[in-house]
Design goal:
elongated; alpha+beta; 4 helices
């Protein structure tokens, strides 16, 4: 085997190991009532220019304080929160994602075609 072929093989093995390690079991969102806001949009930016932030009605005041200005009626949808959280949980269940990260603050999923994020109330309450 040529040196260049060996280097390529090593790169492929490392990539496969990285992809396998990234598919660790991530805990799904089990309490929909803990979610303050969700995001769904195209990759690249999460400011809202490539997607949409949606807020839970129960946390409207908390979210307004957190972002620094009022949450409008058209940004609040408990139904949409539930739909996106269910989508995120489904992606986790079938390991259908490029990247995933879960912290005490949020769950983030990148499918390669779409970003999804959910932020949790307990952390946001601590921030204020």
């Amino acid at each position: 085997m040529k040196k260049s072929e060996l280097k390529q093989l090593i790169k492929e093995v490392i990539k496969e190991v990285d992809e396998t390690n990234n598919k660790k079991e991530i805990e799904p969102i089990t309490d929909i009532n803990s979610v303050v806001k969700v995001y769904s949009g195209k990759p690249g930016c999460m400011c809202g220019c490539k997607g949409r932030w949606i807020y839970a009605s129960a946390y409207r005041d908390l979210a307004s304080k957190n972002r620094g200005y009022k949450i409008n009626d058209d940004e609040v949808s408990d139904k949409s929160i539930k739909l996106i959280v269910n989508k995120m949980n489904s992606l986790l269940k079938i390991n259908n994602y490029k990247e995933v990260k879960r912290t005490d603050q949020y769950l983030f999923i990148d499918t390669g075609e779409r970003y999804y994020a959910a932020y949790f109330a307990d952390y946001m309450k601590k921030e204020l």
